[in-house]
Amino acid sequence: MAVFVLVHGAWSGGWGYREVTAKLRAAGHEVHVPTMTGLGERAHLASPAITLSTHVADVLGVIESEGLDDIILVGHSYGGMVVTGVATKIGAKIRTLVYLDAFLPGDGNSLWDIADGPSREHYIDAQRDEPGLVAPFPMPPGVAPRTMNRHPLLTLLEPVHFTGEEAKVKNRTYIYATRDAPTIFTQFHEKVKDDPQWRVHEIATGHIVMLDDPEGLTQLLLAQVER
């Protein structure tokens, strides 16, 4: 049995992994899906004061309270910032770090630093009516607006700082969604695709991989179990 911790992206919540979670559990694995503060079913806690550190603490809280070890830690989109932050705290507990069409920061990078110009414009313009809380990008087909919440701006501005602990992660995987390529995530796929320290997969979906192809994503995650 493997232990999975699945981290969602901006504006979203743990709900996005519902089908994947069910499939992983049916295959006999332990799965935890934290929803980060101010998002999903925790939207009532939304505040402009929420930072990346808050979301890192959310995930660490689940890992520590459940006594998890040898974890396959998955971060989707903005969740790549979060899982990187988690790795800087408890890298030795992580068997495999999986970036699911996700931001891949270097030491000292914030999401703002590695985003593109149009995204940065959205982050600013979409919080002018509610300062500090960014409205989502237009919804992809099949995602109801009620399932998306405003996202705290400060989480996008706070950098990740490496500690050396992240180097203790045993394995690293990047899953790249190709349907609309090139995308903002192409740069990260290009960075690691020829690196022997990474295992890289492509999946023919849009960015919301877990909704577009839950079965395909499940199979890619199950392939991490034997590493």
- Average pLDDT, to the nearest integer? 96
Q: Write out the strand line-up for the largest beta sheet, numbering strands in chain order.
A: 2-1-3-4-7-8
CATH architecture: 3-Layer(aba) Sandwich
State the domain count: 1
Helix content: 25-40%
Give helix and strand order, one letter per element, not per position. EHEHEHEHHEEHEHEHH
CATH topology, which one?
Rossmann fold
The Cα radius of gyration reads 16 Å
Number of strands: 8
In CATH, what is the class? Alpha Beta
Assess the beta-strand content as a share of residues.
15-25%
Give me the number of helical elements.
Answer: 9
Give the CATH superfamily. Alpha/Beta hydrolase fold, catalytic domain
Distance between the termini: 13 Å
> Largest beta sheet, briefly?
6 strands, parallel
Q: In one word, what is the shape? A: globular
Structural class comes to: alpha/beta
Could you please describe the fold and organization of this structure?
The protein has 227 residues and is of the alpha/beta class. It has one domain: Rossmann fold (3-Layer(aba) Sandwich), CATH 3.40.50.1820. It is built from 9 helices and 8 strands. It has a 6-stranded parallel β-sheet with strand order 2-1-3-4-7-8, sandwiched between helices. Helix 1 links the parallel strand 1 (3-7) and strand 2 (30-32). The longest helix has 15 residues, at 52-66. The radius of gyration is 16 Å and the shape is globular. The two termini are 13 Å apart. The model has no long low-confidence stretch (mean pLDDT 96).
